[in-house]
Structures are given as C-alpha cells and as structure tokens.
Design goal:
With 167 residues, the protein is α+β, with helices and mostly antiparallel strands. Helices cover 36% and strands 21% of the residues. It contains five helices and nine strands. The chain has a three-stranded antiparallel β-sheet, with no helix packed on it. The protein has a two-stranded antiparallel ribbon with strand order 3-4. Helix 3 runs antiparallel to helix 4.
Length: 167
Amino acid sequence: MPQYTYSKLDGSRIEKQESPLEPGTYLQPANSVDSAPPSFESSTHQAIWSDETNTWTVKKIYTGGFDSQEEEDAENDLFTMTEERMATIDVNEYIRGKRNALLEETDIFATIAVDGPAMPESVRTYRQALRDLPTTISNPSLSLVDGIIQINNVTWPNVPQEVLDKR
C-alpha cells in the first residue's frame, strides 16, 4: 500500500518510495513533511511549510500584477527617473556600468579565442577602446530626456560588425 508525504514548498502530495535495503520501510523525500496541509484550492493557492513554527501557511499564488492601482503606481514610481534621483548618480560609475555591459557583450569572442579561432582584430581594438574609455573622457555629464538618462561628452567607440551580428 503506497504511503504519502507532502511537499514543504507547495503542499502537493508525494508518494514515498520503499527502501530497497529495508522492505516495509518508506523513505522520506527531501523537503517533505508527513503532516497534511489544510485543505486549499491548488489552482489558486499553495501551502508552504514553516520549519520554525511547524505549521502550514496557505498563500495565494502570485500571478503578477497588483492588488490595486495604487500599489502598481507606487511600484512604477520606484523606477521612474527624476532629476532628484539622477543627482545622486555618480557620472563615472554610470559610464563604467555601461562600458562594462558593452565589454561583457564581447566576452564570447575572448572565450571562443581560447579554444577556437583568434579574436577578430576589430573586436580586439573595440575592447581596448572600451577599456581605455575612462581615461579618454573629459567633463562627462548626465541629462534626463523624457525620463531616460543620456550620457553627454562621451564618444563611444564604433561597434564592429562581428559584435552587431551576435546581438
């Protein structure tokens, strides 16, 4: 006769497996508990086990969105760039972040070059220009245009076709 236990993560029922070394003894699966969760609608809710309190908590499954328009507006406001928020940004750090993202985009060429064909010279030159960028800029600044941060007084190196093809 099968024996069952319950997943600590979602309250679903799991069949225990009989021990191959000790017939009649059933193995307890990882992240499971023998205590049954309270009844709940599994299509909209899940039961989560707390090891600290040894109890089940039934929670609504998050499906995205918000409970109210106010919550959604408050969340979106956190990501809206304002002049006040922009004033707290370190210009050089922001530029370094963008530069690092562009360098990361070309890392695949360096990885391939280890075991495969050599890195194209245009990519090598582009990567070096990106690494040299902080020393080649003078008086960088940021501005806000329609809620988007613009970097001023920085000339970015031209992206080689090989990199554009990988995008």
